[in-house]
Amino acid sequence: TDNRKNEHLSPFGEHAVNASWVAVQELEKLGLGHEINLHVAEVPVEYQAVQSLLPSLWKQQLPQLVVHVGVSGMATTVTLEQCGHNQGYMRLDNCSFCPESRCCMEGGPDCIQSVIDMDAVCKRVNSSGLGVSVSVSKDAGRYLCDYTYYMSLFLGEGRSAFVHVPPLGKPYSAEQLAQALRAIILEMLELMEHNKGKKHCLHDQ
Prior knowledge:
- The chain is about 35% helix and about 15% strand.
- The chain has a six-stranded mixed sheet, sandwiched between helices. Strands 5-6 form a two-stranded antiparallel ribbon.
- It has a single domain (about 1-195), classed as Aminopeptidase (3-Layer(aba) Sandwich).
- It has five helices and eight strands.
């Protein structure tokens, strides 16, 4: 599981605490059960750092699934992102850098879908009585969250997910967010196991 810092105002904007990182740290305490190895890493809000860090993460950890988590000041629910986008990256990162090409991967597909059906995950978690509202989005924002997600989807052939969480207390606590992340990730892994062997179309035509 990887973490994105607040992408809207750097590094944490108007929020004193980065809700996504705090929630992921709480998730690390909870764990995903004895049979699932959870590796947690914090990713800088920098295009070039993402370009160098993600390939090594995928290569070294050989994960079944990578779940990125970021905080969105606009979110009021825990939001599952279905896809990552290649173009439209015009905002400067925390190093005042922006890709000259305005894209994540030159020549890559415009959009890559996760192999995970986020609508199915959303329905399952919302019907579980968890007390945290979950929704689905198809636009991760064309900044570092979207950029990271696209690259991870490319590297992992779709075996990635991105979850946006609202700021702490708006309305959920770190513990509630961690419980939601745990439930979401377990549902994702179960769906992946169920769909093992099935072919997925990762790239939008």
